[in-house]
Amino acid sequence: MIRTYNKPKSFYYLDPPYYGTEKYYQVQFTEEDHIRLRKSLEKVKGKFLLPYNDCEYIKELYKDYSIKEVKRPHNLHSKFKDKEQEYKELIVTNY
């Protein structure tokens, strides 16, 4: 998709499996896939927005980009009443 539509006016919203949670997805996504995604995004002529879980690995992987730390209500807060009610995420952009 990125190679096909890579134009200065393109905008990409990407939603990969969060790092360290890949086992919860049906499709395999490895650490090498996270790196491959990062390398693909280096070539984007337009803009991209990429949400990820808040972890040091992702912060280091995307250190050359804009990273905003945000909090949102935890999707499973009713299931895990003794857990954090907010979930920390990173919003990574190239703008």
How many strands, what sense, and barrel or not for the largest sheet? 4 strands, mixed
Radius of gyration: 15 Å
CATH topology: Rossmann fold
User: For the terminal residues, how far apart are their CA atoms?
Assistant: 20 Å
Low-confidence stretches: none
CATH class term = Alpha Beta
What's the gist of this structure?
The protein is built from two helices and four strands; from the N terminus they run E-H-E-H-E-E. With 95 residues, the chain is α+β, with helices and mostly antiparallel strands.
Describe the 3D structure.
The protein has 95 residues and is α+β, with helices and mostly antiparallel strands. It has one domain (11-93): 3-Layer(aba) Sandwich (Rossmann fold), CATH 3.40.50. The protein is built from 2 helices and 4 strands. The chain has helices spanning 31-41, 56-61; strands spanning 11-13, 47-53, 66-73, 86-93. The protein has a 4-stranded mixed β-sheet, with no helix packed on it. It is globular and about 40 Å long. The protein starts with 10 loop residues before the first strand and ends with a strand. The relative contact order is 0.21.
Descriptive key words:
2 helices, 95 residues, Rossmann fold, 18% helix, DNA adenine methylase, alpha+beta, single chain, 4 strands, 27% strand, S-adenosyl-L-methionine binding, four-stranded mixed beta sheet, S-adenosyl-L-methionine
